[in-house]
Sequence to fold (575 residues):
Amino acid sequence: MIDTYILHYMGIDYLTSFYDSIVVNLLLAGIGAGMFNSMRFYRPDNENYFYLRLWILLLSIGVTALQQYLFTFIGKGNTAYLELAHKAIPIRFCFNFLMISFVSLLNWLWYYFKSLEEETKRQSDAEKLAKEAELTMLRQQLQPHFLFNSLNSISALAGSRPEEARHMIQQLSDFLRGTLRKDEGQLVSLEEEIAHLQLYLEIEKVRFGHRLNTEIKTGDDCRKKMIPHLLLQPLVENAIKFGLYDTTEAITIHIETTCTEQELHVSITNPFDPATSAPRQGTGFGLNSIQRRLYLLYARQDLVQTKINDRTFTTFVNIPQHDKSPAH
Amino acid sequence: MIKALLIDDEPLARSIVREYLQNYPDIEIVQECNDGFEGVKAIQQHQPELIFLDIQMPKINGFEMLELVEEHPSVIFTTAFDEYALKAFETHAIDYLLKPFSKDRFDKAIQKWREQYSSENAKKKTDALLENTSQQPEQSQRVVVKTGSKIRIIPVHDILYFEADDDYIRIHTADGSFLKKKTMQYFEQTLNSLQFVRVHRSYIIQVAYLTRIDQENGEHHTAILKNGAKVPLSRTGYPKLKEVLGM
Fold:
């Protein structure tokens, strides 16, 4: 339309001006569409940017030439128009060049953002898969030591006290089944988690009965609070290991839970010897994996805290309750 | 009668060895021990010919316990799962029983021990095992020594420097110095080489405790440690120390 007006302003009749603008704009639109299609398959990168410029230049020349050729049909017998068309070649060329450059830039940007979006999506999908795999791995980490030593205890009982051996096989099976349970969501109630923990503790007591005591205090109102499945067992395993290997005496592990609307607090306390235990702290593998797991679930690094108090070591864990189904 | 000792912190694990040993009337269990401390005492007291030894035990592990014993009896290790220990056993061809083990496997171990018992071979193997490798990760974090009847666990970060002293190594800490039957080579290999530097044929120092380096007569360098101790630096030790310090 603007085209038509400008030409009319320059003294060309409406019809000719109208045809002229149709020709010019259709050609440009055609090139835009062609470019859009070709960029679907091929997008120039920075290195062959020069070739892109060359292409735009050649296209502009081609379009301008084609326009001039078509103008001769439109302006048959209209000398004023033909003269103007001829004079305007450099302007038309510049206009074509800018338009084509602009269109190609738009196309390029459109595809660029589209691929960026795809890439981001793929990346987040891959991250999600990796996170799930890692969570499963962290959840199912079973100490081979525990398993083999338990089997050895069963082997010892089988000779002298077969009934007890059978009972321990049952406990160990129940415990393993709980550990291998397929992912039915990461969260279980505190009640369930404690029940699973009890299985574990009973087995450990068969092994260390003479030295290992445990005390579990759970507030009644906390029983239905949610906790990531298999979170407590490795923490208690850690506490037992530190407690039992740091002293030659009998030990008591204290497990306490309290809760508010928003959070469930668990504390696990074991005795330790500050004089000899310090260098071992670095290998607190149990704690690291718990921290990692809580971070993956709640995106918070501050959920696990430890405190050393004279001769006891306490691990505090906070489980946020506001979100029923944490990031998966 | 052959005197045997069971050292394991799990009573059930000991009971299975006791049960299997019932078939061997010539082997008598003189004592059962719950940990390495009891083990050291019992070995001194009974001088057993054979011990069944667990690795993971309270306070000190099985290897550390053996280090505290002057004369090594024959050892059959019993362990559940221990990647570090297994590697060490295999390199030194020492017999070990993986828990849980069968009666057949146990009998084979006893038979093998009887064949080697008379020879000095078995003892040498145990010595070599203790000397050449650090078997457990915690052993690069601490050193266990015995002074009189007292057993002391020294975290390595408390050690100022090591000094060769005949067949022993003198370990210097702020609380005094302790002797241990080891070689310089052992500590040089097992300790973190950025933390501990062998600055002399007879000395390894902990870099963190170095306060300055003095030069005497324009040639001999001496390291001065935090407690004022002077440690000579050898011609090859000095550049090694400089490299670690990034000088």
Summary: Residues 279-283 of chain A have pLDDT under 50 and may be disordered. Chain A has two domains: 2-125, 140-320. The radius of gyration of chain A is 38 Å. Residues 140-320 of chain A form a domain with the Heat Shock Protein 90 fold (CATH 3.30.565.10).
